[in-house]
Structure formats: C-alpha cells, structure tokens
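Good day; I would like, with your permission, to put a structural problem before you. What I wish to show you is a protein chain and, alongside it, a tokenised description of its three-dimensional fold. Thank you for your consideration; the sequence and its tokens are set out here:
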Amino acid sequence: MWNGELLDLDAYLDRVGFRLDPQADAATTLRGLHRAHLKAISFENADIGAGVPIALDVPSLQDKLVRRKRGGYCYEQNLLFAAVLERLGHQVTGLAARVLLGREGDIPRTHALLRVDRKWLVDVGFGGGGLLTPLPFTQGAFEQQGDWTFRLDQEDDVWTLKSFQGGEWVSLYDFTEDPRTPADYAILNYYLSTNPASAFVGRLLVQRTDERARYAITDRELTVATPGGGPQKRSLTPDELATTLRDDFGLELPTATG
C-alpha cells in the first residue's frame, strides 16, 4: 500500500537522527521515531507557492524531504512516514480529517493522518500544533506531551483530537475511521496545491512544534504560541526571514528572500 520497499531506510534514519534499538518494543520505537521526525523535518509549503508540483511517490518524497533536507505539508510528511512504518513492519491505515482549530461549519476532510497497528493515532504532518508523539486510539485517551495536553474523544463514528490551550479545550480536527489510499490523497493533494481557494496557495507557511511552543511563519510574520499564553508576533525583514528559516526551522528555501 505505502511502497515502503522503495524507501532508503538508512538515509531516512540519518535525516531524522534516530537509531533503531533492536531491544526496544514496537511502541517505544514508534514514539521515538515520531518525535525525531517532527524535530528534524519542518512543515512547509514553499514549493506550492513557487508552482512546483507536489509529488507523493516515495522516491520523490525521499529526494525532497530526506536528500534535499526540505520539509513538506501533511500529504508529503505522513505518506513518507507511512512508508517508513510499513518498512518497519507496522500496519498503517490512512485517514482523512476535517481541520477545525476551533472553527465550525461545512469544512471538507482534507488533512491526512494515520492509524498504526490499529491502536495508535499517528500524525507528523499537522502544522497547527498537533501531536508530538502517537496517541492511543481509544475513547478518552489523554496525554501530556511536553507542555501540551491532548485528548481524543469519540461521538458516534466521529473522533475529535483536542488540545488544551489558553484554559480551554480546542478542537484541532475530527475524522472517521473510513480508510484512505494514496490515490485518495493524490486527488486532495492536487486540489490543495493548485486551487487558488486553497489556504496553502498564495502564501508561505512554515511551522514547527516542540515541547514548549509552536513556531509559525506566515509570509514574513513569525508567531510563537504556547499552551498557556497568547501568541507573540513580529514581522521579519527578508534577511531575518532567511536566517530564521535556516537556524530555527532547518530550511533553505528558494522563496526566503523573495
């Protein structure tokens, strides 16, 4: 399903700085690999802004995110991670979520995420302050990850991932267990990366979350948000943008000084 056999696993592990421990159990390895991926590979959409087609086949993802040390958005990140997990022997199911971030209304399910081994919610591609490590795929799952707190609720057939921010629970996204395939993601990817109405078209988006804060760049505005306080924002000059992308996000982007 995820073409893990096409992956250069050693190169990926070098990229994220993770060493497999043959003595570790599957859950420990999964959690460590999830966190290492997030730390090493930032969320970014620079190619979309530059009009570069977003390819989702494993060799293209490996070339961009591993060899060229770029980042990517949810389809790129989670499809690469699905290939890694499949190569390591995990059972991976693709899912699609409706991104809420506190919003309501008729919102399409366009975010890619993964269910792993039938018992873990896995997502290395959510730029809006998502999971640092996998969350148990059970009703009421509750976990502190650094300063962030997450909860997974189920009502009828809909699951909702929530984060505790600013003294209240904020719904990040909701989803069902209907499986998605790479072909499903290819259609959504084409729409989100080319349609002028897409939130990813027409502006630079770069994000990274660690145990303490979420760092986000929108065009030339840097936002730093923590679970307990309001976001801090400041505008960046072109030179500051390029430096921040390189030093804080690990990225050299062709649009950094544009």
